[in-house]
Amino acid sequence: MASIIELLSNEKWPAENPDIIQLYSLATPNGQKIGIALEEMEISYEPHLIHIGQGDQSTDFFRQVNPNGKIPAIIDPDGPGGKPQAIMESAAILVHLANKSGKFMPSDPGEASEALQWLFFQVGHIGPMFGQFGHFWKFARETCDHPYPLERYTNETRRLLQVLEDRLANRDYLLGDDYSVVDMATMPWVRCLGGFYDAAEHLGLGDFAKVNSWQERCLKRPATQRGIEVCSLG
Question: Where residue 167 sits, what CATH number does that domain have?
């Protein structure tokens, strides 16, 4: 296996500036999390588009950066202890960047624990369930005519939206008054429901007023707007 330094000089995605973070991603909800974080935290980075439709995620190079072959992933030449490190999994990358920048993650231990709980809620529930809903709603309706999968994931998506709605009942953001990595992780998935999946009417997204207001607040942030477009197909 190549060393981290050797990976930076790979043929397809060579680092023009190997001294800054290298982002390997695509502007899907999971990928957008990291684009948003890097822009919001004002961390220097170099983006590399990983086109999953063309199999870039299965190349030998990318599998060395992320053995699971999923976007996003980063190489931080100044990782823990000043040593270069490849980091996979969007939540792990968010925590790494928050620690590196000292931004968008509570410093109080109790509040930091709460942040991790909601971050894990996103990666354990929001992402997988919304993703399964999107698959059966947008891509599999012609190949899977049984109603059960779509009913199951529609109901679960609405249930999770209600969890967010209740959480936002007396908060501007998911942790309180301040925008955080939890919002960065969660908002792109909520946005995708009415956007890429085009399922606003089917899901009754208008029923979730607090969630919709929160999403609008997140999207008004210029750095978040920029981050959404990082590693976009155009």
Answer: 1.20.1050.10
